[in-house]
Specification:
The protein is an alpha/beta fold and about 270 residues long. It has one domain: 2-enoyl-CoA Hydratase, Chain A, domain 1. Helices cover about 50% and strands about 15% of the residues. The chain is built from 12 helices and 10 strands. Helix 3 runs parallel beside helix 4, helix 3 packs antiparallel against helix 11 and helix 6 crosses helix 7. The longest helix is centred in the middle third of the chain and has 20 residues. It starts with 12 loop residues before the first strand and ends in a 10-residue tail after the last helix.
Length: about 270
């Protein structure tokens, strides 16, 4: 079986080659519920370029280690951005790259959402071409609870997946969605019991990896033209999100999350 030398530079992603050209990728910061720190955020923006160039990979599956898929941005990453123009520029580019690089990756990407997914982790979970979610898992965009606009993938993807009415509700309120509801409203491809998740994902991965690769890849490319039509809205949402990191609201939102209490946003007083 082919080696994994191509992926040696990644610190927080584990790689396992499986039969039929399936590459199993695991987000690996279980002690922090796979929250996205600076290094992991960069890795999630770059890995899809390597997957696309990897001659031994036909299908990539991404999941999280332990009980979580990825529990949002690490507090250190959030603190780095508040009021820091240079850092905001870097993170904004990476955030756009995560979305565009998954969409442009010629290989099929499948997500196995095994537990909570928030923030940058949710981007990867939902931007995957096919998303499987444990019925017991929960997801939320999380941005407005922090005090910034719903950027990342939300505006480019949620209205297309679940319609504008549901997108408005969940992105503005940050209510959680479990796997059953996520499948019902169209946010994910399929929801299955947690105990059956890996098997269901592998069955799908094998089917795609043993299928006609050109036909599957061209279908992905064509479907993602729907996403690219929404690129102007996405770019605006990302800019508004980053602008929010200069606000008093984000400072209060970050403190409230760290202190596990309801926020008292200055703009709402």
């Amino acid at each position: 079986m082919a080696d994994l030398q191509l992926y040696e530079k990644y610190e927080h992603l584990l790689f396992e080659r499986r039969d039929h050209g399936i590459l199993w990728i695991t987000i690996n910061r279980p002690e922090r519920f796979n929250a996205t720190n600076s290094r992991l955020h960069w890795e999630l923006s770059k890995v899809w370029l390597d997957v696309g160039e990897d001659p031994d990979t036909l299908v990539a599956v991404i999941t999280g280690s332990g009980q979580a898929f990825s529990a949002g941005g690490d507090f250190e990453l959030i603190e780095e951005q508040i009021g820091n123009f240079n850092r905001i520029q870097e993170v904004a580019k990476e955030a756009a790259d995560i979305v565009y690089n998954i969409a442009d990756c010629p290989k099929t990407v499948i997500s196995a959402i095994n537990g909570v997914a928030v923030g940058a982790g949710l981007v990867v979970a939902l931007m995957a071409d096919i998303s499987f979610m444990a019925q017991e898992a929960r997801i939320t965009d999380g941005h407005t609870r922090l005090g910034v606009a719903a950027g990342d993938h939300a505006v480019i993807l949620w209205p297309l997946l679940c319609g504008l009415a549901k997108a408005r509700y969940y992105l503005m309120t940050c209510d959680f969605v479990d796997g059953v509801e996520a499948e019902r409203i169209g946010l994910v491809s399929k929801a299955v019991p947690r105990a059956e998740l890996d098997e269901a994902v592998m069955q799908c991965a094998v089917k795609l990896a043993t299928g006609p690769q050109s036909a599957i890849r061209w279908t992905k490319r064509s479907l993602n033209l729907w996403l690219k039509q929404a690129a102007p809205s996405f770019e605006a949402s990302l800019a508004y999100e980053m602008l929010g990191f200069f606000s008093d609201d984000v400072r209060e939102g970050a403190r409230a999350l760290q202190e596990r209490r309801p926020p008292k946003f200055p703009s709402a007083r």
